[in-house]
Amino acid sequence: MKTHTLVTPEADLVYDVRGPLPPSDGRPPLVMIGQPMDAGGFADLASHLTERTVVTYDPRGLGRSTRKDGRTDHDPETQAADVHALIKALGAGPVEMFASSGGAVTALALVAAHPDDVATLVAHEPPLLPLLPDAAAAERARTAIRDVYEAKGAGAGMAAFIAMTSWQGEFTDGYFAAPAPDPAQFGLPAEDDGSRGDPLLSDVSWAVSGYRPDIEALTAAPTRIVIAVGEESRGTVTARTSEAAADLLGQRATVFPSHHGGFVGGQHGFAGQPEAFARRLRDVLAGAA
Fold it and tell me: How far is C-alpha 214 from the chain's CA centre?
């Protein structure tokens, strides 16, 4: 693996390349992106795809990538511009792309703005709240996470986040009537360390979960877009957003093994099935349903 830094006027973007560039097998590089997860979250998945040249990166302001624009917020269109610059720097486009969570939102913004950058996109569980029939309630639930985090810190905020993302179906009065979950039940600390800059628990990434994809641009793009969902995610908010996005694109969400983080190993806490996930990704990129 070789690590590089792409210097732009607004950010210094650190990215890793596993394998030769251009790829020795004639296939395009496989670019993996997340948000707020950085490149480290894809190490397990990449280790099961050694036949491919795999590129991972840290989004601006996350991991090793620093920003020079004086901002702390994250929005998919800015990140899409960064990924576009990264693909140009690779000199091997159009690429294939696996994008997860907020990274999948960025990837949809990228394809809409730069349709020739990506040949095939596998967008895994993009959290597109505006697409839900209960969008207003989902946004209220998101706001409640921020409020708990601001009031009680990271442990309480993460407990609220887990409660939201594991809730089955629409966000009903029953959801909002439930008491705030105890961080201890998830093995989280109850103590407040005083920090408030978490990109997942604060409101700095609301532009990501609040993004409404340009369906007309996406359907007009030459990119093959596959919306993916974890088999264990059924009924959760990110499964529902994925199914809604797939429906708008005239398809059904493609099922992958495991859950929202199904491609990560045990060192990330809630282990997925990275080997099985890699097999499924390999097949889907090859054109299998």
Answer: 18
